[in-house]
Amino acid sequence: MLQQQQQRQENLKMRTPPTHLLSFTEQIYNFQICATDFASSLICIASDKKLILGLARFPEESENDTFEWERLKDIYNESRCHALAFHPETSLMSVPKTVTFCSAGADFVLRIFRTDLQNADTVQALKAHTNYVNDIAWDTEGEFLASVSDDHSCKIWSSESHYENVITFCLSSAGMSVKWHPEEPHKVLVAEKKGVVHLYNVRSQQAIISLEAPRGPLMSADWSLNNCHFITALAYGDVVTWDLSHKPCSPSDVKQVHEDGGRCVRFAPNTELVTASIGRPDITLKVFTAKSSVPLVEAGLKLYAGLCWHHRLPYVAAAYDRKLGFWKVQFK
C-alpha cells in the first residue's frame, strides 16, 4: 500500500499542466471543436441547458501571439447535452455566417441548431431513439447524420428528406461511437459496448467488416483521418489499434493505458501514430505515440466532459468541471 501511494505521488509530479486554460461559471458537460477549414477556431461548449459558441485563437494564429477567447453566442438547449457534432458546411467566412451543429440530449432527442451568430436561430428536433444517445457524426458531405444509442441501434438521418430516419442498423449491445471518413464516403464506423467495431455500407445497408477487441467493455472508438486503414478503440483500459491494410481482423497493437478502465480515445488528426485518451484512475488524460510507453502528455482531470483535437494546430483539449484545457503536443 505504501509503495502504491509513493507511486501515485511520483505520478502526480509528472502531470502536464495545460498550455492554455478557460474557466467558466457553469459546469461543462460536453464540448466540440469545429473541424471545418472555415471555422476551425469555433468551439461549442455545453453546460446544463445552455450551448456556448465561442472562438479560441491560439498564439500560432494570433496577431498578438497570445491565447484569446471570444464568447459569441449562448443558445438555450432543452436537455443536457450528451454529444455534439458540427455540420461540415459550417463557415465563419460566409456572409451571413452559417453555423450548424447537432446536440444529443439526455431526453434521447437530437436537436439540429442553425444560427448566423446574430438573430437568426432555428432548432429542429429528431425523435426516434428510446435511450441515451452516446455519439453523433455527420458524413463529410453533410448528406447523412449518424447517431448511436444505448437502445442498441445506429440510426442514419438524411438531410435530403429533412433529416428523416432513413436507415437503422440493429446492434447487439449499446452503440458507443460512430464515425465517417472523407476517403470512404459511403461507409460508417459503428462501435458497440460489447467490444465489436463494424464498418457498414450505407448504400447497400450491409456490414463490410467486423473487428473484435480482446476484452471489454468498449467505451469509445475512432477512425484515423490521416490513414483510413487505421481504427482504434478504448476497451476496458486498453487502446486497441487495427491496421486494415495488413491483418484486418486482428489488432496490430494493444496497449494498456488506463489501469481502471477508459472513457474516450481520439487519433491526432494529422497522424495515425498518436492517440489521446482519458480513463481511470483519477480521470487522467494521456497522449501516446504508437511505439512508446512514455506519454507525451499526462494530466489528472478528476472529471470527464469531453476530448477533442484541434483540426489544424497541435493541441488536444479536454473539459473537466468548469474548465476547458488545451495541451500543446510536441510531435516527435
Explain this structure.
It is a single chain. With 332 residues, the protein is mainly beta. Strand 23 and strand 24 form a beta hairpin. The chain contains one helix and 28 strands. 4% of the residues lie in helices and 51% in strands. The chain has a four-stranded antiparallel beta sheet, with no helix packed on it. A four-stranded antiparallel beta sheet has the order 2-3-4-5, with no helix packed on it.
Which whole number gives the mean pLDDT? 93
End-to-end Cα distance, whole Å, is 36 Å
Q: Order of SSEs, N→C? A: HEEEEEEEEEEEEEEEEEEEEEEEEEEEE
- Helix fraction, binned, reads under 10%
Biggest sheet record:
4 strands, antiparallel
Number of strands: 28
Rg from Cα: 19 Å
Q: Report the sheet-strand fraction.
A: over 45%
Topology (elements, then pairings):
Elements: H1 2-13, E1 20-23, E2 30-33, E3 42-46, E4 50-57, E5 68-76, E6 81-86, E7 99-105, E8 110-115, E9 121-126, E10 133-138, E11 144-149, E12 153-158, E13 164-170, E14 175-181, E15 184-192, E16 196-201, E17 206-212, E18 218-223, E19 230-235, E20 238-243, E21 253-256, E22 262-267, E23 274-279, E24 284-289, E25 297-300, E26 307-309, E27 315-320, E28 323-328
Antiparallel strand pairs: 1-28, 2-3, 3-4, 4-5, 6-7, 7-8, 8-9, 10-11, 11-12, 12-13, 14-15, 15-16, 16-17, 18-19, 19-20, 20-21, 22-23, 23-24, 24-25, 26-27, 27-28
